[in-house]
Amino acid sequence: MELTQDYLERLDAVQPKELPGDLDLFDEATATRGIRLNKAAYSLKDEPQRDLFHSDEEAWMEQFGLTDEEKELVRRRDWIGLWRGGMSIYVMVKLSGVTDTPLPEIGKQMRESGGN
């Protein structure tokens, strides 16, 4: 479906303007960039995917076509990097569950990174 000029103008009208340069804004562009990461993390709602993650994390990542950079973010449990790469906090919780990473630890990493 092609976006109409009217839609694009309305979308532009609601986009935040003049934001601080260091703001970690999760917007449409970020979400689009994170499609592979989000599909991968969302899959962890299913037991067979959790089992695969625990038995062969590389195979689990490969099935979603994650880039080398995305794989490295997952391997390092780089939560702010995953956020900046487009992973939604809602599916990040699924990944944190299978990696036994408590949510306060994710928040701590994000605060220490200077993320807003």
Distance between the termini: 34 Å
Number of strands: 0
Specify Rg, calculated over alpha carbons. 16 Å
Contiguous runs where pLDDT drops below 50 for at least 5 residues:
none
Helical percentage: 55-70%
Backbone structural class: mainly alpha
Strand portion = under 5%
The helix/strand order is HHHHHHHHH
- The general outline is globular
State the assembly state of the protein chains: single chain
Overall pLDDT confidence: 88
- Sheet of most strands: none
Helix segment tally: 9
Task: Walk me through this protein's architecture.
By secondary structure, the protein is mainly α. Helices cover 65% and strands 0% of the residues. It has helices at residues 5-14, 28-33, 35-43, 47-55, 57-62, 68-76, 79-84, 89-98, 103-112. The chain is globular. It starts with a helix and ends with a helix.
Structure keywords:
mainly alpha; 116 residues; single chain
Nutshell version of this structure?
The chain has 116 residues and is mostly helical.
